[in-house]
Amino acid sequence: MPDTYRRILLAARPHGLVDDATLRIDDTATVPEPAAGQALVRVRHLSIDPTIRTWMDDAPGYLPPIGIGDVVRSGGIGDVVASATDALPVGSTVFGMLGWQEYALVDGADGSMTVVPPGLDPAMVLGVLGVTGMTAYFGLKDIGRPAAGDTVVVSGAAGATGSVVGQLARIEGAGTVVGIAGSADKCAWLVDELGFDHAINYREEDVAARVRATCPQGIDVYFDNVGGDILDVCLANLAMRARVVLCGAISQYNEDRPVGPRNYLQLIVKRARMEGFLILDYLDRFPAAQLEMAGWVLEGRIQHREHVVEGLEHAGDALNLLFSGGNTGKVVVAV
Asked: pLDDT of 67-79, one tens digit each?
């Protein structure tokens, strides 16, 4: 075990994408010894999610902002290499908020770490069987509540969450599943491999016209990952009693002045419902949902893809991929 380790600290609040001024690599921290009740984890993989960008802002949210000079917060998976708690024995693999660093000191008694069963692919644990997959599962099933024959539209459909939402909609019996993504390759992946009925390339097509064409009876469930103009287009095309699931607003996270929806009055006209959710509210239901999701993965009914970025030093670049559209599927950093 080395004497020191690398970690990435938040050096300044970002305006737009993160850059060299936003982050600082520190390689002088001493590898700690676990005290009673603690364990030392060697971090192997990091989950790169859009919400990390929101935590970098000095603004109220469901978690406190990352402090200037603090390790960038994120979920991760790693191996216990030293332990002073029976809850996290040496050699076990754990998942939790490990942060952008090579080693993390964690508490074995507060329930913040989950021991991962042996043999599971770390990228799957962080993706389709982890928070990403659970976000798709509960957001669609509990908030969207698709019924047989419904028309379901998903924005950010080639991302980690959106790609799973569309497939879950098909399992739930949706009549038409439409994905909105940002390239021809992504759209082809959605239709040819994931079973979406239609895919709309928002960079090259008239999104409003294509939504009207692919959803002639309106949208019953809209799963929103992007906000902004695309949210407005879908609000203008709701069916009666539609459900709008607010999962994220990735088009707005780098904006100093985020723009809200203009077409919200359609919620009144269509007697529709728009509801946000946080996956933290569903933690106690994860085991049953993960078991069901794992069965669908094994049966081939849920396909998944991971975009792995090598090296802790490239974590900032990996985060920016989510906003440039440079990824397909779940972004993971191999530390």
From this structure: 999 999 999 999 9
